[in-house]
Every structure is written in C-alpha cells, then in structure tokens.
Amino acid sequence: MTAEEYVSLFTGERLRWEAVGNVFAVAGRALVATPGDDPLFIESNLPAHSTLLSQISEASDICLSFCTRASCSNELLVSLQVNDLMLKTQQHGDSSYQAWRRLGDLSATVYFSGLHNHGQEDDSDPVFLAQLKRGCFATAFYVDKCVATFLGRPPLLNYRHCSLVPPLDLSDDVIVGDSSSLADAIEELAPDGWDPQGRAHRTSLVRIRLLLAVFKAKVVESTAAPYNQKTLPNAK
C-alpha cells in the first residue's frame, strides 16, 4: 500500500469522521493563536472570536462522539484526540476537567489500539505507516508527561509498558515518497535513527520530545509516594 492509497481510505468518497474532526481541531488551535482584532474578523462576516471558537470546539466534540460510537480505534483517532486535547487545554486551561477527561480517552485509545507496543516494524504495515504510528504514539506520550509534570498528577501512559522507539529522523516528503528512495534514505541514517547531516525535520522535534518525555516520566516516578509496606492492607 502506498501513501496515496492510504490517504484515499479516509478522504473523498471514503471520508471518515476522524479526518473531519482533525480539520476542526487543528483549525481551533490556530484560532486560539489568532487575536480577536485580526483583520480576518474585522473585514469578514465571521462570528466573534469566542463564538467561532466555541462552534469549532463543539464540531470537534461531535466528530469524536461519532468515532466513539463506531468503536473503531486507529492512529487517525489518536491524532484527533491529541489535537482536540490541545484545543481543550488552550480553551479551558491545562487543569480543566475537559482536558483531563480527553487525556484519559487518549491513553485508553493508545492502549486499545496497540500503539504503545508499536516499536518494532510490523511486516503487515508499510514503512510510512509504521513511522506514522510511531509518531502518533510519541506525541501522545509527550502530551501525557507534560500534563503530569505540570499539574503534579500521575501519568496515564506508563513508560514501563510502552515501546519507546521514536520515528526515524526523515522528512515527510521522503517518508511518503517511493519505496526505493525511502529505503536509500533509511540506509543513510545514523544507527540511532538521526539524520547524520543534522537537518531539521518535523520528526526531529517528535524525537526530541519523546526523549524529554521519558526523562519526565522517570522524574515523576522518583517523586511518587514512597512504598510503605506497613500501610498496605494484608490479604488474609
């Protein structure tokens, strides 16, 4: 399966709610970063900034509810949940219940879909799809650790139960390109998966964030409540 064939599975006549929801969630995140006095709002007939943000957030919620009813867990849903979670943190705050509930749903989807164990290449997946799944997990893992360290709450994705293999340090054009060029690019990478020429790609940031997330996970674990056998109930 090629990247074009993969995209055709959730666009066009096969348009899926995960793809629609991602559009709304990403648009909402962009809207949060857009000031209310931007010419876009002044020179057009768009609703007020706060009204439009509420409408987009609600649309993302509706798409997520459709996906939940379908009970179909995949990397597209993980991507939607990550983007919607980021939207909720920007809209309601990092410590809000809305954001925390979204994080719980995200961790459940990661575990249920098996992305937490997708560290090694799966023969049933083409290389580009395996890299996409790695990136989805790495992003979800990073977001979970950011919330845990910022709010002092326990992380929901335990690093001891996850395969912490980052995506390869390749550009998106190479990953979705032809298989021969992709194979050549992989051969040129360093043994640890980094670009030996030091070029910055989108996946470079994903890899760095995963490394930071692992460090944060270990810090959170070291600051957890000490194990005290005397306070534990004994089974009789």
From TrEMBL:
Alphabetically, the GO molecular function entries are: DNA binding; zinc ion binding
- Transmembrane segments annotated in the record for this chain: none
Keyword list, A-Z: Nucleus
Which CDD domains does the annotation name?
A: fungal_TF_MHR (cd12148)
- Gene Ontology BP terms: DNA-templated transcription
Is Nucleus tagged as a keyword?
yes
Superkingdom classification of source: Eukaryota
Please report the stretch or stretches of sequence annotated as the Xylanolytic transcriptional activator regulatory domain.
99-173
Q: Under which name does UniProt file this protein?
A: C6 transcription factor
Q: Which source organism does the UniProt entry give?
A: Colletotrichum tabaci
